[in-house]
Amino acid sequence: MLAAASRGALRTARTALTELAAELPDAAGISNVSEGLFGVVRLLDSTSQLRRALGDPTTPRQAKESLLDSLLGEQLDPLPMRVLKEVVAQRWSSPRDLVDAVEVLAVQAAFLVAEADRSLDDVEDELFRFSRIVARDPELRAVLTDRGLDNDRKTALLTGMLGDRTRPETLRLISSLVLAPRGRTLEDGLAEYARLAAEIRERSVARVTSAVRLTDAQEERLAAALARTLGREVQLQVDVDPAVLGGLVVRVGDEVIDGTTRHHLRAARVALSRQ
Predict the structure, then answer these.
(1) Helix/strand/coil for 205
(2) The pTM is what?
(3) What strands, in cross-sheet order, belong to the sheet with 255-258?
(4) Which of 12, 3, 14 lies closest to 92 in space, CA to CA?
(5) Rounded Cα gap, residues 154 and 151, in angstroms
(6) Residue 167 burial by CB count (10 A; 0-12/13-18/19+): exposed, middle or buried?
(7) Could you state, in order of their start, the residue ranges of all structural domains in the chain?
(8) CA atoms within 13 A on the CB side of 29
(9) Strand pairing partners for 256?
(10) pLDDT tens by residue, 72-120
């Protein structure tokens, strides 16, 4: 959780990135922003001295920009450098908050590209489906999270699995999480990215668990009902789990709406035990 000062700084930086994307036709070049910023995240995670220097609120902006130019001027394209300079110009509560913010911007840039070519829904869905695959395949999860396995082999594995089956932004996001989990589980990282995708279009992600597969018409009615309740568009991510017996479990953020048969049976048992 970012401190108050860092939350304000992140809002400013995210707004600047959105405005930059709006200046470019079809978000051209923003893909390079995402890739470049992910590289910066890995660099800052591994270099505490640089992290502290860029996150020090007492250091003048010009000095930070000069440091970036001297270290990354020949390696980082102008657009990601522009975004990075906007980040270091803000006041952060800690150097670690600054690094977290750079990652958020890298993810946001990838989603802005997907939104521009109208594939954001596909990317969200692909991230969700991959999270379900990982949750159901312990062997795959063990390989992807094995610290002793060379990153090149992990990259080759992901490319073989996803390269022809997902959008380039999806592969970039998943690869970044696998290669640099930054203290998170893979599932938690994917959930965080899904939340950020939802924020791009000011909507909520509703994770639905159903005993049987829902029809398109049922999904449309459920989405419409949740939208009326929440006051904004809702993106459904539906998972089938026969263990719920019947009905639905709907999770929107921290709120859980449990209408399953299993839930009612459990409630009935509790009630009977009190008599």
Answers:
(1) strand
(2) 0.74
(3) 234-240, 204-210, 248-252, 255-258
(4) 3
(5) 5
(6) buried
(7) 1-117, 119-201, 203-273
(8) 16
(9) 251
(10) 999 999 999 999 999 999 999 999 999 999 999 999 999 998 988 888 8
